[in-house]
Amino acid sequence: MIFRPFLSLIALSLLVFLELGSPCSAQTKSNELDFLLGEWKGEGCDLPAKHSCNKVSQTVKVQRDPNGNSLKFEDRMRPKYRESQSDIYLKGAFAYDESSQLWAGNFGRANLRGRLLKPNTFQWEEQSEFGIRRTTVMIANENEWHQATEMRLSKGWVQTYESVLRKSK
């Protein structure tokens, strides 16, 4: 019977820990996407329905906002062969949403939900008028940005874009 008070104390401590969460969890979440920080440049391939590659140059800038709670993204894509295509410029931000336990963000009007899949791999999804689109970014060797974008169609996920960028700053 000596162990009963000891077990009660452990159970109470566990309940308090679960209720309050880990004391460093908020700080850890705000830093878990730091591997994306920097300026990244390289080439990508827009894959239209014809399955040919429309080459683009791509520059992505990711920086922490001044208050440190979110990451700001700027993504510029310029077609290499400019017959009828124009530049694409997206600007947005991600911040961790405690209630959904996901990264919430936007690029223009698109609302995004993202999550860390594994160390150095971040994925977000957005709902568009065409369906669900998801983008996965994996950082390899601390200086290579590998990006793949897929669209969910009736036949499953179809890749629509890929790029490899190198950290320039």
- The overall number of domains is 1
- Form type: globular
How are the strands of the largest sheet arranged?
1-2-3-4-5-6-7-8-9-10
SS content category: mainly beta
Termini separation comes to 63 Å
CATH superfamily: Calycin beta-barrel core domain
Query: What share of the residues does DSSP label as strand, in percent?
Result: over 45%
Number of helices: 2
User: What is the third-level CATH name, the topology?
Assistant: Lipocalin
Low-confidence stretches: 1-24
Largest sheet: 10 strands, antiparallel, barrel
Radius of gyration: 21 Å
Q: What average pLDDT do the residues reach?
A: 81
Q: What is the share of helical residues? A: 10-25%
Would you report the number of β strands? 10
The oligomerization state is single chain
Q: What features would you describe in this structure?
A:
This protein is mainly beta and 169 residues long. The protein has a single domain, classed as Calycin beta-barrel core domain (Lipocalin, Beta Barrel), CATH 2.40.128.20. Helix content is 15%, strand content 56%. The chain is built from 2 helices and 10 strands, in the order ααββββββββββ. It is globular and about 45 Å long. It starts with a helix and ends with a strand.
